[in-house]
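Q: Second attempt. The first request was missing the SMILES, so the protein and 2-acetamido-2-deoxy-beta-D-glucopyranose are both included now.
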Amino acid sequence: MGALRSFVILGTLVSPALSTAVPLTRPRAVAGQGWSLQSGTCPADTKSCGNESCCPSTSNCQATGNGEVEACCPTTSNCRGSVEGAPSCASAAWSLWTGSFGNGFCCEVGLTGAFVNGGSVAGICVTSVPSGYSMASLVSKGTGTPVTSTPPTSSTSSSAQTTTKASSTKSTTSGPTSTTVPRAVFAHYMVGSMTAAEAVQDVTDAKAVGFDAFALNTHDITDPWALEAIGYLFDAADQYGFKLFMSFDMSWHTISPSQIPSFLLNYTSRASYYTISGRPLVSTYDGGFIANSDWLLGFKQPLTAQGINPYFIPNFGDWSGWPSNFFSTYTVADGVFSWESAWPAPGTTISNVSDSVDQNLLQQARAAGKVFLMPVSSFQFKYLGPGQDWYRIGEVNLPQRFEQVLDLQPDLVELITWNDAGEGHYIGNFFQGQIDGSTIGNYANGFDHTGWQQLVSPFIRAYKGGTATSGSQILPPGSGPVGSLWYRTLLTSASCSSTIQNYQQGQDTVNFAVLLPSSGYTIKVYSNNGLIGSFAGTVGLNYRAVPGLSVGGGQYIQIVNSAGSVVASATGTKQVAAQSSNATCNWNYEVVGLS
Ligand SMILES: *[C@@H]1O[C@H](CO)[C@@H](O)[C@H](O)[C@H]1NC(C)=O
Ligand SMILES: *[C@@H]1O[C@H](CO)[C@@H](O)[C@H](O)[C@H]1NC(C)=O
Ligand SMILES: *[C@@H]1O[C@H](CO)[C@@H](O)[C@H](O)[C@H]1NC(C)=O
Ligand SMILES: *[C@@H]1O[C@H](CO)[C@@H](O)[C@H](O)[C@H]1NC(C)=O
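A: Got both inputs this time. The predicted holo structure:
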């Protein structure tokens, strides 16, 4: 049998019946009655109950019960039993969480509930979950304004006391936001048949680029070819100090949540499994057609019962309600990933990529004390037959997404992808064995994309550094320019172009993105050996899609210094043609790094 691999099928899934686990009615709240706020400093209109808890100033504090926090009661009579029966917060402004033994406690909006498994206190409120703690479950979000920091409390470690900016949308962000999880940049990785040596090469190359982990995309968790490849990758990662986590490809409908625990337990003990606060990270492509309750009962609870609390950041873009009310619908999720927002919408009009879905999800994550994993990608090109042929804008999508990440400051970032040759957005190695049995090689083989790594490495450094908020702060690693040139080898006017979905969005441009150490450089762009653009460079990121791609060779860019010397250049190795000479209408990019 030839190698099998998972190709992401885009736009073909409709979400089937969605069952909702969210009750439509809640018990009526009694004013001033409910669980107390866990905070060392009590906000205005509240009073301290001692034990770093606060009740509304008009309520009475009731001492803690076993594993519980102080209750707030409207009168001096003990209402603890009523609060246990119908848990709520004593103030509607606070968010209700459940922690140790499922006991309730309340936090100000913007903070995260955390608890020690089996601990004697229901939970605490923090900006970042301290080591040894688990993130609590958010039951309902309060109406209060998000707070920006948590005052020191004796029960949290110093790592939990960092301040954070609660609001992080474009309009309100003035600087970088520290997050509840350590910043990381992952690369999406399509699991396919491979050799041990190829696994070592991918792992060491991705580590050299600066990635923190591969998100291993698989729709198969039983067949020998998949288990063998995953095994090679974990062995390589263990050996070379890289990390991996699973991203289950649910779009194939070949994995059910209840099959995941036994599979995952085979890998979560590996040194190379990526964890957040000691919890193994798990992601998906799709799976929003499966109800929250099925994810909870089939996947999360069985693992938790075995002492493994997965940190679940799925992409449920196939859910019919996407992206609204994400965390109240999917209480199983600890974060959210948005695959589709990496590219402009498909269609017939040329547009820049929008970050409105990213902003929406980031806001929801901040409000719920959860995290947002933001996608970055170059473009898409797929040519596998009718219905499986498409283009998604890529002229300058990659640098535009870099800018959007630095503007929004998400918690985590995932590059789509390291090796998906089928969809064209690979930046890593091309291994024929991973795509055997397909015709992907007809358009990907020989189209090397590693030139994009010159841009990705400094971007990762800038994002993880935490202080860069714009492209001008993405700097080259040394004293000279880095960057790349990319163009298609077929004009959009080729007669075969209309076989490609969204071909109307393609442009005949020579594209570049260059990182300059200072101003004073000029970027010159040539097609068919003719100058089609000349641009004064600025420090950091410079990019353009320059119209004027023409038939022939001589596609190149030059970086010229103020003395008029060419200090770096990138020259395409492939000619541009007006028509395709065979059945492959190849819109893949020729990508060349500066040297
Ligand atoms: C503070 O916590 C301790 C230990 O959980 C408990 O015994 C005590 O009653 C609490 N005090 C108040 C005022 O709730
Ligand atoms: C566990 O992982 C190893 C590779 O590390 C693989 O060979 C084995 O088949 C896996 N077992 C299961 C049940 O997935
Ligand atoms: C995309 O953004 C660039 C830079 O802001 C702008 O010049 C261009 O007009 C935009 N293109 C479209 C189609 O909106
Ligand atoms: C199609 O033509 C291109 C350009 O001449 C060539 O590089 C490629 O190998 C050809 N593909 C096939 C499948 O013949």
